[in-house]
Amino acid sequence: MLADQFSYSEDFQVKVLAYMLSNNEFCEVAKSALTNELFANKVIQWFFDKLANAPIKLSPTTLQEELLRDAAKKVIRDTEVTTYVAYYNEIKKPPMLPEEQYIRAEMSNFIRTQSVKKAIVASVDLVAAGKWTEIVQLVTEATSKGMDIMTTGHDFFKDYQDRLAARMNEEDGRHISTAIPELDEYLDGGLMNKQLGMVAGATGRGKSIFLEWLAKAAVMLGKSVVYYSLEMTEEDISFRFDSLFSQIKAREVRMRNVEVFKAMSAYSAKFGSQLIIKEYPAKSITVEGIKAHYMQLSNLGIRPDLVIVDYLDLLKPSQHYNDMYQEQDYTTQQLHGLAKELNVAIWTAAQLNRSGITNEFPDETSISGAMAKLFTCDVAIFMAQSKDEAEDEIMRLIVTKNRNGPKNKTVELSTDYSRFTFYRKKALEADDTQ
Q1: What gap in Å lies between CA 416 and CA 216, rounded to an integer?
Q2: Cβ neighbours of 91 (radius 10 Å)
Q3: Which of 206, 218, 293, 348 could form a disulfide with 309 if both were Cys (CB 3.0 to 4.6 A apart)?
Q4: Rounded-to-integer distance, Cα 425 and Cα 428, Å
Q5: Can you tell me the distance from the alpha carbon of 299 to that of 290, in angstroms, rounded to the nearest whole number?
Q6: To the nearest 10°, the Cα dihedral for 267, 272, 274, 276?
Q7: Alpha carbons 247 and 27: distance in angstroms, whole number
Q8: Cα separation of 8 and 108, whole Å?
Q9: How far, CA to CA in Å, does 370 sit from each of 72, 126, 328?
Q10: Using CA atoms, how far apart are residues 375 and 383, in angstroms rounded to an integer?
Q11: CA gap 209, 276 in Å, rounded
C-alpha cells in the first residue's frame, strides 16, 4: 500500500519536496506550514530550505544549479556530493497522481506527528524539573499543528448549491437557547456554534447562577455541556445544580434529600453524561488546558455542544506581557478561537469594575480589566440592578453587543436565587410551596 511505502519516512519527505518542486500551489502551502526542523536529516533540510527560501520558484534546472553552486563553494562537502545528487535525482521527478493525493491527505498528520516528536524530546528536561503544566501545554500545542492546512476554505460561488441546500435543511441546533424568550428573540434563538458569549456583572449579582441556568437550558434541549469552574468547587456547583434541576430551595436540599434523589434519578436516566463539571483552581489552567480536557472528554465519547467557563478573569494567561490588560485581551481571543476550532458555543463571565458595581446602567466602560474583551466576544450582556430591584428579585439584562441581532436592548425578568433559578416563569412566582 502507498501508506506503507511512505509513512513519514525519508521517502515520504522526499516526495513532499518533489511535489513542492513540481506544483506552485502546493509549494506555497508547504512554505507557510512546514519548517526546516520537521525533516529527517540535513540533506533533506537543505533541499527544503532552497525550495522554501528561493525568491523565485525553482525548477529542476535551477535547483540543480543551486546544488552545483554550493558544492563548488564547499558548503556541501566533497564526500557528501554523491548523497545530495542521489536525493536530487528523486526530487526532480514529479509525484504520480496517487502520490499527490496521499501527500495532500497526510500533510496535516505529518506536521502534527513531527511536532509531537519534537515536543516529547523537548519535554525531557521539563519532566526532570516536574513542570507538568508546561509539558501539557507544549504537547497540546504540538497536537494542534498543521490543522486544516490543505483546506482552501469555502468557495462561495462554486459551492452555492450545497450551501443553500444545507441552509434549507438546517436545524435550529446551531443556536443554543438561553430559555429566556425575550433574550432569545434578540439573539435570534441563542448563542451559535463558534461564538463566544460573555455576561458581565458585579460581585454577588449572579453571574454564576446565570451560567448555571444556561447549562441547564442546554441540557434540557438535549445538548451536552461541560462546565469549567475556576472559582467554586465541583461540590458547590453540583449542589446548585441539584437545587436548580429539582426546583427545591437551596436551604431545604439537605432536609429533602429523598425528593432530590427522586428528581435526579429521573434526570440521570434521561440525560446520562450530558453535564460534566470540572473544577480548576483560579489562575491554574490556560485556554490550551481547557482544550486538552475537552479533547479528553471527546476521546471518552463525550463531545459537549456548549462550554461554560466560570469565569474568564480567572483563566491563566498562556502569554505573559507584563501587562494584565494585554494578557486578558489575548486570553479572550484564545477562548474565541477555541469556540471556532471546536465548533461549539462558549459562555463565560467577567467582573465589573468599581464604577460598574454601583452603576445601575453599566456600559462598556464598566468592564473590569481589558475593555478589549468586549471587542472579541460575539455577545456581551451586562447584569444591572438597583437596590429596589434586588429586593424585588428583578434583574435587567442589557445586551451591549450582539452579532446575532440588535444591541442596546434591555430584558427585565424575575429571578429566584433561592432555587438558583435565573429566570422565573410566572407559574413559579405564585408557587412557593416547594
Answers
A1: 15
A2: 24
A3: 348
A4: 5
A5: 14
A6: 100
A7: 61
A8: 11
A9: 58, 32, 6
A10: 18
A11: 16
- What is the C-alpha R_g of the chain? 28
Single-letter code of the amino acid located at 366: S
Q: 105-122: string of b/e by CB count within 10 Å (b at 16+)?
A: ebbbebbbbbbbebbeee
Residues, the chain: 434
Q: What is the pTM for the complete model shown?
A: 0.66
Question: Distance between CA atoms of 135 and 119, rounded to whole angstroms?
Answer: 8
Side chain identity at residue 278, one-letter code: K
Alpha carbon distance 307, 303 (integer Å): 10
Grid coordinates of 5: 511505502
- Angle between helix axes 97-122 and 132-143 (nearest 10 degrees) is 170
Domain ranges of the chain: 2-143, 172-429
| Least confident interval from 91-95, 322-326, 406-410 | 322-326
Topology adopted by domain 172-429: Rossmann fold (3.40.50)
In this predicted model, what pLDDT tens digit does every residue of 44-77 receive, in sequence order?
A: 999 999 999 998 889 999 999 999 999 999 999 9
Neighbour-count burial for 383-408, b at 16+ CB within 10 Å, e otherwise: bbbeeeeeeebebbbbbbbbbbeeee
Closest to 380 (Cα-Cα) out of 355, 353, 348: 348
pLDDT in tens, 328-387: 888 999 999 999 999 999 999 998 755 555 556 655 555 655 466 788 899 999 999 888
Q: How far apart are CA 229 and CA 247, in angstroms?
A: 22
Q: Which residues are within 8 A (CB) of 380 and not within 5 positions of it... i.e. 6 or more apart? A: 197, 198, 199, 200, 374, 399, 400, 401, 402
Whether domain 2-143 has CATH 3.30.1450: the reply is: no
pLDDT in tens, 113-149: 767 777 888 888 888 888 877 777 777 776 665 555 5
Select from 381, 415, 422, 412 the least CA-distant residue to 187.
Answer: 381
Q: Note whether 369 and 328 are within 8 A (CB).
A: yes
Partnered with residue 379 across adjacent β-strands are 197, 402
d(CA 81, CA 118) in angstroms, rounded, equals 29
Q: 201 pairs with which residues across the strands?
A: 351
Interior angle at CA 387, CA 381 and CA 392, nearest 5: 85
